[in-house]
Amino acid sequence: MYVIDGYNLLHALRKIPGELPKDFGRARARVIALLSQFAQRESTKVRIFFDGTPGRLDDGDLDYPGVKVVFCGPGRESADHAVREFVLNAMEPFKLKVVSSDLEVAKSCKLNGAKVISSQVMATLLGKLTPDRGEPARPEKPTRGMIGDLEQEMLNEIGDFEEFQRRIEQGD
């Protein structure tokens, strides 16, 4: 699992020309979308911590596969503190990869057993994900009790699962 200091990574990505939109909210969404692509490609999960609050969001704005977004809003700890606490309280901190260029965060997380990757290194990895620097495609929003289009197409193709299994066993 990757544990990420969100705005630290966002600022590192801003150093790569053309990687992020100028609008702050859209830039944050682009970072999350890139992390979702990364999580899916690497078969991992990502937890990203941001300082402050998300501002005005529409339903599903932060719903990206593989990524859990946490805001450390007013009256709560900073994202730096939240990252350190997450690692400190982890059952298996040695399985965590922390992305931050903050020296105090890096030191604390290393002492607790996590691997630390600088935000600039992660930004370079994310910058290589897509040749298209346009807006990220919105992920399909899952609906409880519904299946995605691909799964539905597969079911339409094979029909009833028991019937499909019987056909395979008989070599049809």
How would you describe what is shown here?
This protein is α/β, with parallel strands linked by helices. It contains seven helices and five strands; from the N terminus they run E-H-H-E-E-H-E-H-E-H-H-H. It has a five-stranded parallel beta sheet with strand order 3-2-1-4-5. Helix 4 links the parallel strand 4 and strand 5. 28% of the residues are buried.
Radius of gyration over alpha carbons?
A: 20 Å
What is the level 1 CATH name of the largest domain? Alpha Beta
**SSE-based structural type:** alpha/beta
Total DSSP E strands: 5
Count the helices. How many? 7
CATH topology of the largest domain: Rossmann fold
Helical proportion?
40-55%
| Anisotropy-based shape | globular
Listing every helix as H and every strand as E from the N terminus to the C terminus, the arrangement reads: EHHEEHEHEHHH
Query: What is the mean pLDDT?
Result: 80
Ends distance: 43 Å
Note the beta-strand portion: 5-15%
Which regions contain 5 or more consecutive residues with pLDDT less than 50?
Answer: 131-148
What does the main sheet amount to? 5 strands, parallel
Number of domains: 2
Strand arrangement within the widest β-sheet reads: 3-2-1-4-5
Strands, helices and their partners?
Elements: E1 2-5, H1 6-14, H2 24-42, E2 46-51, E3 67-72, H3 79-88, E4 97-99, H4 103-111, E5 115-117, H5 119-127, H6 149-158, H7 161-170
Parallel strand pairs: 1-2, 1-4, 2-3, 4-5
Helix pairs in contact: 1-5, 3-4
